Amino acid sequence: LGIALYTRDFSIALVANNTSRSLGMLYTFTALWANQAGSLLFWSWILSLYSVIVVLMKWNNDRELMPHVVAVLMALQTFFAFMLSFISSPFARWWLVNGKTVMALYPPAGAQLFTPADGQGLNPLLQHPAMAIHPPLLYLGYVGFTIPFAFAMAALISGKLGPAWLRATRRWTIATWLFLSIGLMLGGRWAYDVLGWGGYWGWDPVENAAFMPWL
């Protein structure tokens, strides 16, 4: 999808709906998380990377908890895989059917691939330097907390309710909380500059939803 954004492959609906030929390269890649489908893919990708890292780092030291941790992580990943496969695919394309354009992952009967000459561009509210960095940092924080959650669930499932799972996730929790902190500060700056809703705390619901787990 990153290559499709870079090459301006407007046959992919996500690219056509969120970028244009005149859009700068920074905001072209920002379009990846400027929509639901791209955000789900980005979230799932980060979760997969975190899952690999935690398995490589913790498998030998926390062998009693790790099978349950992996099961919880894969259950969550399955949910995102289902969403990406059946609800909101980032790879849906534009198809021409009986003179009308239709967005679908697979070609309908008698359809031809349709590629617009140019895209619609990115929402002007999202064309801010903070928005290029703010969502990925929020995702790193949000998704990072999946790991402590998985260890907590593993402790409950296995009955190992001692401090072992807390020790295993302490540094991870601090690091992801730091990501969330920086993401919130950048989001506050964006809201202050672009939305003008009365200061750093006059955020939209998405910003407040990120602030609650930070607390």
Task: Name a few traits of the molecule.
mainly alpha, three-stranded antiparallel sheet, 6% strand, 215 residues
General description of the model:
- There is one protein chain.
- Helices cover 62% and strands 6% of the residues.
- The chain has nine helices and three strands, in the order H-H-H-H-H-E-E-E-H-H-H-H.
- The chain is mainly α and 215 residues long.
- It is globular and about 65 Å long.
- A three-stranded antiparallel β-sheet has the order 2-1-3, with no helix packed on it.
- Strand 1 (93-97) and strand 2 form a beta hairpin.
Biggest sheet descriptor? 3 strands, antiparallel
Radius of gyration: 20 Å
Strand order of the biggest β-sheet: 2-1-3
Uncertain spans, ≥5 residues at pLDDT below 50? none
Average pLDDT rating: 89
Number of beta-strand segments: 3
Order of helices and strands: HHHHHEEEHHHH
Straight-line N-to-C gap? 34 Å
Strand content: 5-15%
Cα shape: globular
Number of helices: 9
